[in-house]
Design goal:
- It is a single chain.
- With about 250 residues, the protein is α/β, with parallel strands linked by helices.
- It has one domain: Metallo-beta-lactamase, Chain A (4-Layer Sandwich).
- About 20% of the residues lie in helices and about 25% in strands.
- The strands form 2 sheets. It has a 7-stranded mixed beta sheet with strand order 6-5-4-3-2-1-14.
- Strand 2 and strand 3 form a beta hairpin.
- Helix 6 runs parallel beside helix 7.
- The protein is globular, with a radius of gyration of 17 Å.
Amino acid sequence: MKLVMLGTSGYYPNERRHTACFTIPEFGIILDAGTGMFRLTDYLASNELDIFLSHAHLDHIVGLTYLLGLLHGSDVEKVVLHGEPAKLEAVDKHLYAELIFGIKPDMEFRPLADEVAVRGDGRVTHFPLEHPGGSVGYRLDWPDHSLAYVTDTTAAPGVDYIDKIRGVDLLIHECYFPDELADLAKLRFHSSTSAVAQVAKDAEVDRLVLVHMNPADSRADPIDVAKARAIFPETEVGDDRMEVEF
């Protein structure tokens, strides 16, 4: 099974990375809809799309406005947007307001259920994260594959969501700042390198890919991955168009 990283930056795009968007093309699953969404047409492999929002901050939803053009002339017959009710209302009322965008792509807005069935005999569950306005993380399970997606929160030893992600094959976790800026990460409700690696170790996941990094630093490794690997060796830095088998 393959996950494609369409956007791995936080807050705003830079010359190297676009903002958060990830897809499992085989099953038409999309996690968040940041500016990386513009690459979606290169990976369409399903006639139905399920988009799961972690929250409604602009860097995670702006790509929803791209769907009007991206899906024109495609074989996609159905798009479902999953999210917490308040987040869906914000998208509907504000992002698609007449004076902001004005034309809503044809999609179903569906409040998050405790468990969502997805193609391939899979299921998606979610759990709360601490972030201004509220955010959720996701766990996706199939009979032989699993992954968790955690963004816009502060990683720390003993955080509540460790048990929710325990044992997954692949953990995609935000890492906005390096350890030198750990205090700033906490202040802004984001995560830093060693804390994320410790979460991955404590949760006994197989593999960790770090995403949602500070766009002010466009280096290939803005978070000092060596420090993460000292705690959890199976750590990589995510990059746009990176394909991850799990």
